[in-house]
Design goal:
Number of helices: 9
Shape: globular
Structural class: alpha/beta
Order of helices and strands: EHHEHEHEHEHEHEEEHEH
Number of domains: 1
Strand content: 15-25%
Helix content: 40-55%
Largest sheet: 8 strands, parallel
CATH superfamily: Divalent-metal-dependent TIM barrel enzymes
CATH architecture: Alpha-Beta Barrel
CATH class: Alpha Beta
Radius of gyration: 17 Å
Length: 258
């Protein structure tokens, strides 16, 4: 396993214009990361020339484009809105291929009021299937993140991804900060489907946030045969410039002695 960093970790700086995407790449190089996850929200432009520029700038800094990320909502009760979301993901599958990214993170979306869970689950599976067809053409895996709603639990995640089990173009972005309850049991059940990950410092347990034991996480991932990236998604309230560096040092220790 190797370490990557999500652009989302520096979201406040990027949104405020105090850090550019190129500056994010500089920071990740200086902190010794192997790769970066490039989040669509922070691209100032999305034309082919700029995408080629970002790909080249990552390469020049010795960084893999470990992944890309969009939001997404496959569960809108409006069929036209769902179609637009699918089109957006498909557009970014093509852009991800231009950037050299092997995987694109997506969300299922929140459950609309009055919509049955099984109906919503059907919409998510339909959206994933349509996006996977484009992903297969582009060579980019669609990675559904466990991110609340239908994906709030391992049971929900596994139910959504069951039709794609064993297939090459849909997998899981396993976020270690988004489950509650017996998180390690849920990690273990989901790890075989993971194609990429998000490593948060803490996880919500009731009204508290508790630290995740990443030595235990690393063992779970290794047992599942995972060989990809641990991608830091820093959400703590302190300065990410120092916080990401500190967390990366901890994760390197976990990878070395877990």
């Amino acid at each position: 396993m190797r370490l990557s960093c999500c652009a989302y970790s520096y979201r406040d700086l990027l949104t405020a214009g105090r850090m550019t995407l190129e500056g994010f790449l500089d920071t990740c190089r200086d902190l010794g990361f192997d790769g970066v996850e490039l989040t669509q929200y922070y691209f100032p432009q999305e034309d082919a020339g700029y995408l080629a520029h970002v790909k080249r700038e990552a390469f020049a800094r010795g960084l893999d484009v470990a992944g890309t990320a969009v939001g997404g909502n496959f569960i809108s009760a409006d069929a036209e809105a769902r179609a637009k979301q699918v089109a957006h993901v498909c557009d970014w599958l093509e852009k991800s291929a231009r950037l050299g990214s092997p995987v694109l993170r997506v969300f299922a979306g929140g459950l609309p009021k009055g919509v049955a869970e099984e109906t919503a689950a059907g919409w998510v599976r339909e959206g994933l299937e349509r996006c996977a067809e484009v992903g297969a053409q582009c060579g980019v895996v669609v990675a559904l993140e466990n991110h609340g709603g239908l994906t709030a639990t391992a049971d929900g995640v596994l139910a959504l991804l069951e039709p794609f089990a064993g297939g090459p173009w849909v997998g899981l972005n396993l976020d270690f900060g988004n489950f509650t309850g017996d998180i390690y049991e849920q990690y273990g059940r989901c790890a075989p489907l993971a194609v990429t990950t998000h490593a948060k410092v803490t996880v919500r347990q009731g009204e508290e946030r508790k630290s995740v034991d990443y030595r235990r996480v690393v063992r779970i991932l290794r047992d599942a045969g995972y060989r990809g990236y641990l991608s830091i998604e820093y959400e703590e309230p302190d300065d990410p410039v120092t916080g990401v560096d500190r967390f990366a040092a901890y994760l390197r220790g976990c990878l070395a002695d877990a």
